[in-house]
Amino acid sequence: MIELRNVTKTYPAPRGRRAILDDITCVLGDEGSVGILGRNGAGKSTLLRILGGSELPDLGTVKRHGRVSWPIGFSGGFNGSLTGEENCRFAARIYDADVDEVIERTREFAEIGDYFFMPVRSYSSGMKARLAFGLSMAIDFDVYLVDEITAVGDRKFQKKCRDAFREREQRSSMIIVSHQMKTIQEYAKRFAVLVDGKLHFYDDLKEAEQLYNKAS
Predict the structure, then answer these.
(1) What is the pLDDT of residues 125-148, one digit of tens each?
(2) How far apart are the C-alpha atoms of 30 and 155, rounded to whole Å?
(3) N or C: which end of the chain has fewer CB within 10 A?
(4) CA-CA distance, 184 to 171, in Å (whole number)?
């Protein structure tokens, strides 16, 4: 689980600074998967980066209990000059995972053939997404961070991704941010809406949807 205490994040605005996260205190991932709704620009991706540790809050603290993933499917973190295999090796070492197992599981899941052994800069965007998703699934995390689940590859591969999510749900929690109600409904057991820098929590998706629609 992840504990946030008085977390605030601001960005420059035409008049001073805008608090995209405003004094948030909560615990995420302790009661199953959480779906966070928010319009574009509400701060969902910023929140996810802070949860994962790739961005720091201006104020407040974040405590992570267990192993927390990077945002699933995010391919921007790859080193383009390294091969897919070398990127997997690097990630496995960072997360203290079995290197050979991570490489093999990612290669098998991504289904990109010999491109796995070529520099990532030679990949198409779809191939990068396959590699990123495969690597995310190859390392076991206690909490998975998911930013806008997108369709990757053909229908067969998309089903493979959904099945992998379902399997992970049995033993891990997910924190999913999205502006799509269907995505939240499919994967989350608890719901929140990010509005004006505040997180509002609900057990009922319909109540969360009402606030989301009002804020949109």
Answers:
(1) 889 989 998 999 999 999 999 887
(2) 33
(3) C
(4) 19
Residue 133 resides in a domain: no
Total domains in the chain come to 1
Amino acid 30 reads D
pLDDT digit string (tens) for 82-123?
A: 999 999 999 999 999 999 999 999 999 999 999 999 999 999
Could you tell me the CATH number of the domain that includes residue 51? Answer: 3.40.50.300
Domain for residue 53, yes or no? Answer: yes
Confirm whether 126 is domain-assigned. no
